[in-house]
């Protein structure tokens, strides 16, 4: 109960459950009159803050939902959009080119020749003619096919040891002293039994004793070229057999018209001997 006095102060009695437990509190009367306004303001403030919290929470959820929907749509569109056709074709062309270059290098290594560098294969052509990616790679592809066939069936590299004892051309006869003879190939230094390898893919057209060459092998290739391996101690192939680049076909010896163990090697074009030195390396 509140007791008003004539002054500006009011007394508020706080009564407990026991009658003797009453306490009094003196408060300015004007504050008591404004108490209902304070209560109303507090309630409105609490309601406003609660509403703001609810609104912000709902807005945050909405933004997260929209973000998830956007990511799902992007993922769906990525699945629907295929890679450009010309890009796929270009990649396929490049892969085929790289495969051919690797095979060419394998042929060179089998012949004892260091493989070439394929960096910057496109060159720096600044001509006005412009080709589409498909046309450009197709031209490279066709050209490499020709190179691959040429490398596979052209004698290149060393059939045995790298050391040359006697070169192509006229020389003094090593057996009949004082005479001059035409040496139709290269003589490679070697020991009896050293391996002799074919320098290109081809077909064996002769394997046996051949005049002053002793035990000899002749291999015909598709481009009117023929290779001859003479003075062998052993022959490992037969006439009519197809041989591949780097295949062991015999062993070094000193049979026939010979003064010691070595390999006589010839390259013939259209049946006539040419300098094998031309075919030892790519220039």
List keywords for this structure.
283 residues; alpha+beta; Glucose Permease (Domain IIA); ten-stranded antiparallel beta sheet; 3 helices; 15 strands; disordered N terminus
Can you walk me through this structure?
The longest helix has 52 residues. The protein is of the alpha+beta class. It has three domains: 78 residues, no CATH class; 52 residues, no CATH class; 116 residues, Distorted Sandwich (Glucose Permease (Domain IIA)), CATH 2.70.70. The chain is built from three helices and 15 strands. Helix 2 packs parallel to helix 3. Helix content is 35%, strand content 27%.
Specify the CATH homologous superfamily of the largest domain.
Glucose Permease (Domain IIA)
Distance between the termini: 120 Å
Oligomer: single chain
Which architecture of the largest domain per CATH? Distorted Sandwich
- Helix content percent band: 25-40%
Q: What is the level 1 CATH name of the largest domain?
A: Mainly Beta
Tell me the number of structural domains. 3
CATH topology annotation of the largest domain = Glucose Permease (Domain IIA)
**Largest sheet: number of strands, sense, barrel closure:** 10 strands, antiparallel
What amount of the residues lies in strands?
25-35%
Order of H and E elements = EEEHHHEEEEEEEEEEEE
Shape: rod-shaped
Round the Cα radius of gyration to an integer and report it. 49 Å
Count of DSSP E strands? 15
